[in-house]
Amino acid sequence: xxxxxTLTATLFAALPAxxxxxxxxxxxxxxxxxFVQPSPSAINSFPVFVAIGEGFFEEEGLNVTVEAINxxxxxxxxxxxxxxxxxxxxxxxxxxxxxxxxxxxxxxxVAARSNFGIAVQEDSEIxxxxxxxxxxxxxxxxxxxxxxxxxxxxSGAGMSAGEDYEFLTxxxxxxxxxAFLNGExxxxxxxxxxxxxxxxxxxxxxxxxxxxFARFFGNGxxxxxxTIANDRELVEAWSRAFAKGHAFALxxxxxxxxxxxxxxxxxxxxxxxxxxxxxxxxxxxKTIPTDEAPHLGWYPAEVWEEWQEALIAGGEISGPLDxxxxxxxNEFAEIGSAAAGR
Length: 342
Fold this sequence. Notes:
Helices cover 43% and strands 15% of the residues. By secondary structure, the protein is an alpha/beta fold. The strands form 3 sheets. It has a 5-stranded mixed sheet with strand order 8-7-9-6-10. It has a 4-stranded mixed sheet with strand order 1-3-2-4. Strands 5-11 form a two-stranded antiparallel sheet.
């Protein structure tokens, strides 16, 4: 199910023999940790790759392997099956998974500002969400965060999937472009990165998402409740390293180093330096905490309530969770932010 890509750098060849032996011994002492992300993009998970490249995880005694799988649903499956320690699912899929007994918990709000939107072709006659009545909305995955986001937006306009519009899973990048060109879809629910890729590939699109949906945060770092209860030191260590990676990347003085780490994580994204830089700017802008946030990674309780209400309205869950507050915590983000001096 999982396509494994080990992304920890090894600089052993440049070390003298004594240094190599010491470094090898240190590496053996590191705890092996797996992080799963819902797409192959290093830019979308940039704090992880920066924390790897800058040695922040190693300082915490962790050796992190990154694995790319398909969508938030798969990320949550990997976490619940014990195939990974941490992942980056969306809030909608996480709430839905908890209704099925998956005790996953969000611990860091990465996309503090909505990193999803519904886009149409630049020359489309469609100007607003209401005009998508009777239309087909493409998505990258069948159960990813972009699906829940689109349901939320459409329900806000009084429309329900299967009745007033249809979803069609088309993938991202080239397949999404082809779906537009073939007339299979009229709009596309996508992340900031996906939209940038479409535009870069010559498929000019524009976002028609109402401004009020910008408050709906996107994918964040999650782990299992059992991990928090039984391996708290690990969660704290991860949180410190991750927040340091996030804070490092938010500082433009570190830009060259950040882009280098991201190119190591995904060489294909690093081939076009101009595009990589522009995409990083777009994704990073969505991770800047909102004005009311007291620290990096902070979750607003009221938006969790709105996410849940949207899932109920869209028919994705039958009713509210017994305890929505158990789905998230700000405790570890606060610990991480303090370590990062933010």
